[in-house]
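INFO  loader      accepted 1 record
INFO  loader      residues=157
INFO  predictor   begin
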Amino acid sequence: MPKIDIANVPVRTGSSYPASEAAKMEGRSQQRLGDAGGITQFGANLVTLAPGALSSLRHWHEKQDEFLVVTSGTCTLIDDTGETELKTGDCAAFPAGDPNGHHLVNKTDTSASFLVIGTHTPTETGYYSDLDMMVKVANGTYTFTRKDGTPFGEATE
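INFO  predictor   done
INFO  writer      dumping C-alpha cells
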C-alpha cells in the first residue's frame, strides 16, 4: 500500500553542517517521507521548526529545484528580497541556479511545519549566502569549503 504511516517515519535532528554551524539547527527536525515511500528521483521531507528555529542556513542550489508548502503554523521566509510570512497552505519555489539564498525561520511561539520537495541529482553544489561557505555533494558525502575551495571545517553527523 502506498500510504506512508508518518507516525512510523523516523524523526531526524542534527545537521550535516560543519561543527561551527551545526548548533544553529537546534529545534529543527525532519522526516524523510520520500525515502520512506521508496521515492528516488526527488526528496520529500516534512520539516518541523520549534519556536525560534531555522530550516537551514540561507542557501541556494546549482542543480536542484526546491518547492515547499507550509502544513501548519507560520514560518518567515528570508531571502535576498527580505522577509515574507508564510502561513498554512502558502507555497514557495526556488528554481535551480537562482542565486537567491533562502531559508525559513519560525518567529512564532508555537511549532510550525512544512513539506519540502526537491530534485535528487548525483552531484550538487550549494552556496551559503551569509557565510563564506559552499558544499559539494557526491555519493552522499558533503564536503564543505570556503567559496574559494579552501577547507571550512569538519562535517558532523
